[in-house]
Design goal:
Number of strands: 7
Distance between the termini: 52 Å
Largest sheet: 7 strands, parallel
Radius of gyration: 18 Å
Shape: globular
Bound molecules: nicotinamide-adenine-dinucleotide
Length: 272
């Protein structure tokens, strides 16, 4: 008998799906049988992403829609549209985030950079959680399709929420710490409703977000020496972890700081 796909018939929203981890997760979700509502502030990128998913996985119904996660109305509209289109919501992947090139230390970070970073990375995750909870409470069991009540919410934090970064990016680090704390509390408050919340903590990944930030050989080298595996991670390696957290394979995993960092958090010295 063929194995059941891990996200068969599940309805999933991904924020920041136009690039990097979000885009790879859209492909992995579709490969596992999910229907995906892809959202991003970059409309052209997210429409292209939906086209790619639909052409790669004809059984998946992918839609692309513009959404700025720092605007509550945008997030609410996307969640409501998803429920209208697919009749339920099983997985919310709050992935969209920024690391601004002008982010710096306590003295030099401008207030506008601080506020922009918190608006997208923290408030955006809160809005995603809030509207996912409202929608997921309306899920009805569908035994024919193997779907139950509740849902899985995955919020993207970072390994820098656990380790201090000696190269300053204070607004970003603080925002990701907030995501960890918020996720833990939501996991406890909503556990008895069948809603699971976990925080994904990626290590340094070869995506535009990081590569645009590490725009000199010095900046790149300063980080590379800390990687026990001698390389940055790939977005698809995060996406595969997200599939696990989204699926019922992780049904007893709740409130975790899920590190996918090649062992970086456990490392003191990597080379002579
Ligand atoms: P990326 O830049 O490749 O993709 C991020 C996507 O988010 C882009 O498509 C962008 O248009 C979108 N976005 C930006 N602002 C938005 C907004 N206001 N509303 C909606 N969408 C918006 O980045 P990535 O590396 O794939 O990062 C995804 C997540 O992973 C982020 O939360 C990031 O902080 C986190 N992360 C990344 C790394 C890394 O090394 N790349 C490490 C740890 C955590």
């Amino acid at each position: 008998m063929a194995a059941r796909l891990r996200l068969a018939h599940k309805v999933c929203i991904i924020t920041g799906a136009g690039s990097g981890i979000g885009l790879e997760t859209a492909l992995q979700f579709a490969a596992e049988g999910a229907h995906v509502m892809l959202t991003d502030i970059n409309e052209a990128a997210v429409l292209k992403a939906a086209e790619l998913v639909n052409s790669s996985f004809p059984n998946c119904k992918a839609n692309g829609i513009k959404c700025d996660v720092s605007k509550e109305l945008d997030v609410k509209t996307v969640v409501e549209k998803t429920f209208e289109t697919y009749g339920r919501l099983d997985v919310m992947f709050n992935n969209a985030g920024i690391m601004h090139g002008d982010d710096d230390d306590a003295v030099n970070t401008e207030e506008r950079i601080w506020d922009l970073t918190q608006a997208i990375n923290v408030k955006g995750v809160w809005y995603g959680c809030k509207h996912a909870i409202i929608a997921m409470r309306k899920n009805k069991p569908n035994p024919e399709l193997g779907l139950g009540i509740g849902g899985s919410i995955i919020n993207v934090a970072s390994f820098v929420a656990i380790l201090g970064a000696a190269t300053p990016q204070l607004a970003y680090t603080a925002s990701k710490g907030a995501v960890l704390a918020m996720t833990r509390e939501l996991a406890m408050v909503h556990a008895r409703e069948g809603l699971r919340f976990n925080a994904l903590c990626p290590g340094p990944i070869r995506t535009p977000l990081l590569m645009d930030f590490l725009n000199t050989p010095e900046k790149l080298g300063r980080r590379m020496i800390h990687n026990p595996m001698g390389r940055f991670g790939e977005a698809v390696e995060q996406a595969k972890a997200v599939v696990f957290l989204a699926s019922d394979d992780s049904s007893y995993i709740n409130g975790t700081d899920f590190l996918v960092d090649g062992g970086l958090h456990a490392c003191y010295v990597t080379s002579e």
